[in-house]
Fold:
Amino acid sequence: MRLIFELLGEDIKLAKAEVFSLFQDYKILFDLGTILGLKVSKDLCSKEDLRLLAMTHCVSEILGESDSIKEDIIESVKKISIEKRPLFVRCRKVKESKLRSGEVERAVGEIFYQKGFKIDLREPEIEIRIIICGERAFIARKICDCDKKILRKNPLEMPFFYPGVLNPKLARVLVNLCGLKKGERLLDPMCGSGGILIEGASRGLEVFGVDARERMVEGALKNLRSSAFKGYNLMVGDSRNLCFKDRSMDGIVVDMPYGQSSPIIGKSARELYYRSMEEIFRIFKKRCVVVAREDLSEIAEIIGFRSIERYEQRVHRSLTRKILVLS
Structure:
């Protein structure tokens, strides 16, 4: 199955990593900045998983491709065979092209009309997307929009708010990077107000949250209850001495405290990071995603992790988050 991902432009590297995390096996067909083409197994492609991508606009199945010449696009469309259901055509130019979007939409729509399709602009059952990338054009059938409405609401609107909370989009990206499947177990050993847990629960994961501050655990519980998700477990505890058995969590996502709105517990930040990472290493099975103010890759390697990828996200002039994906 050939898929085309139309990525958001705010952080291309992180957006691609989020897409790759969905698939254990894939082949990159093309990488054109905000347009990414992958070949994946149809059996491993879940529409629900695709919808939950936080940094992708929409996902479509590639039906054909051609040079970005109107006549070539039309010839490619003529070869496409799909079930006859009401459809409409949308053309998007990602890179500079002399072609006019409206002209391409009308020409392609006319071909489908001649094939016996009903063109329905109000309630179409199929959306055909013509994506023009410079000299190439891709004809695709949209599978889904990545629904930003299902991201949890603004943290300020939640029953419990605490400064420094991750924004919902980044929390979802971090959970997606962990690459877990529905029903698997996710731990956040410094859960704060529960943002990561909420995004994990939205994916159907069984989530576990620990925080050293009772007030934060109570607040996270309120937020989870208000989100109407099930399968969550919270407790007061120390991330340096967790009560879970070895290899008992499929994945772990943690946003380490920065020492500003979130206090450093222990002798120092480095001691907290090191001992917490030791516990994370003991407990996890598959993959961990660790966010901190500083690069913890050296600590991770000493403990025994294998670093998969490193990312950075600039928050403001004095704070750049360092994101590690570890196994």
